[in-house]
């Protein structure tokens, strides 16, 4: 089984970097613990080209900061059927990327979105203390989720 963890956000906008920081944490964990079958990627935003990037994977976990009223984080399933036409192609949703992957490559990896609660969005390259705590919790959750998914497939 192949898993991709894909974080996105702007590291120059304080807590908007949460998705990227989660991906970096998972990348370090993979290297430190020699975790097989897991790849990591990150970018400022999702693009239509990411449909090709996710196509060879069985499971994809997108990670992003959330401005919504949530607890520390929420982990949701992404469905290609929920894709909507975007006003701009400069930023697309995980559902749109998954739907495009299905249409172009005939593949629909099981896809999730980790929403991590952020608090501040100023032009500062540092997470707020509250966001750092949420990141730790979200990272631990994703590690356990990966272990569980790998165990289910063996």
Explain how this protein is built.
- 37% of the residues lie in helices and 22% in strands.
- It has 154 residues and is of the alpha/beta class.
- The chain has a single domain, classed as Rossmann fold (3-Layer(aba) Sandwich).
- The protein has a five-stranded mixed sheet.
- Strand 1, helix 1 and strand 2 form a beta-alpha-beta unit.
- Helix 1 (18-33) packs across helix 4.
List keywords for this structure.
single chain, 154 residues, Rossmann fold, five-stranded mixed sheet, 5 strands, 37% helix, globular
What is the structure about, briefly put?
The protein is of the alpha/beta class. It has one domain (3-152): 3-Layer(aba) Sandwich (Rossmann fold). The protein has helices spanning 18-33, 50-54, 94-105, 129-152; strands at 3-8, 38-43, 59-66, 73-78, 110-117.
List the helices and strands and how they pair.
Blueprint lengths: L2 E6 L9 H16 L4 E6 L6 H5 L4 E8 L6 E6 L15 H12 L4 E8 L11 H24 L2
Parallel strand pairs: 1-2, 1-3, 3-5
Antiparallel strand pairs: 4-5
Helix pairs in contact: 1-4
